[in-house]
Amino acid sequence: MIKEIFSLPFEKKVGQLFIIGLPSDEIDAEAKELLEEISPGGICLFARNIKSLEQTRRLNDELRKKLPVEPIISIDQEGGLVDRLRRVLTPMPSARAIRQNGDLAAARLLGKITGEVLRILGLNMNFAPVMEILSEEREKLQNGLYSRSFGRSPGEVLGYAMVYLRGLQREGIWGCLKHFPGLGASDIDSHEEMPIVALSHDELIAQDLAPYIELFLYRRDEEDRIKAVMVGHGGYPKIDLVEETMGGKILPASINKHIVNDLLREELGYENLALTDDLEMGAITKHYTIEDAAKLALEASQDMILICSTSQSAISAYRSVLSAFKTKELSQKSLEKSLRRIAKIKSVLRPPLEFDKNRLLGLSEEIARLNQKLNYSYGGQTS
């Protein structure tokens, strides 16, 4: 895979740094233009891209044919409120519902079912699990994470995330931990504005980062290892403040070299794929142009940039990044490092399973039985 990626034309090498969204449930003229110009390294599917089981698999098969290198085809399939498949399969339970029932086996089963479903549909990465720690006090904050966390303590989050990942990854779908270094203590949803996390370095290490550290060190089997981490858009004023002429500026973690390079890479020793949360979220777009955000992300040591909502934003960011590499505003050395990490994960992506609608419907029934066991109803509520 390294040879395959490094033999691409320069423009397509740069395209490998992008994970983009598609406008609809087919490869229409707009999607075709996106794919031809950017040749992205990955695609992220949303509910707008999923109309039926057959159509979703067909779309993913077509994406593989149109892109020059095997793409990362990803989705946010957490369960609960973040369930992109709810219109084609029984809605999946939330992480909170599983934790409330104290059921580690249910976490592993959710991962296993999710993994098999996604692989039959032609995907190979799931942007889950959510690693935020939501203590009883933090559960009162309005940050959009209430039902998405597996626990109230580092130990709980670690335990549930580990068994969930084991179920998911042993079915051939790689997980992606999010949202590094932790948004649990914030009181704003990063879809709307940049959340501020007023924790010190030591507080983060002891609490929010503790599960990450343990998972980074876990080495039992290849399928248990962490291949991807998504960095969130939170600001951390107690550990990083970029000085300006007047006062200081808080740089979101996703585009901040002190978080991505210094903390994630150097201090915690993480060597695999690092990627941004969607750069079209309010935490970024209210403060930066998409072009500047994309370049800052790569300067920060991110490997892949997510731009998932607007086709023009993806094209503008790509053109800006391409120009920055050509003019040496961005370094060739950093491009090569990221391409090697991308090649490393692409070399272990598993091919789709044979499409089997009856098996998918059977898995949908398994989800329904799991919901019944957890006393879970759609919307993430438990009675």
Describe the model.
This protein has 383 residues and is an alpha/beta fold. It is globular. It has a 6-stranded parallel beta sheet. It has a single domain (2-371), classed as Alpha-Beta Barrel (TIM Barrel). The chain has helices at residues 2-6, 10-15, 29-38, 53-66, 95-100, 104-120, 154-169, 201-206, 210-217, 257-267, 282-285, 290-299, 311-326, 332-346, 357-374, and strands spanning 18-21, 42-45, 72-75, 77-79, 82-83, 125-126, 174-175, 177-180, 228-231, 242-243, 248-249, 273-276, 305-307, 376-377, 381-382.
What are the SSEs and their pairings?
Elements: H1 2-6, H2 10-15, E1 18-21, H3 29-38, E2 42-45, H4 53-66, E3 72-75, E4 77-79, E5 82-83, H5 95-100, H6 104-120, E6 125-126, H7 154-169, E7 174-175, E8 177-180, H8 201-206, H9 210-217, E9 228-231, E10 242-243, E11 248-249, H10 257-267, E12 273-276, H11 282-285, H12 290-299, E13 305-307, H13 311-326, H14 332-346, H15 357-374, E14 376-377, E15 381-382
Parallel strand pairs: 1-2, 1-13, 2-3, 3-6, 6-7, 8-9, 9-12
Antiparallel strand pairs: 4-5, 10-11, 14-15
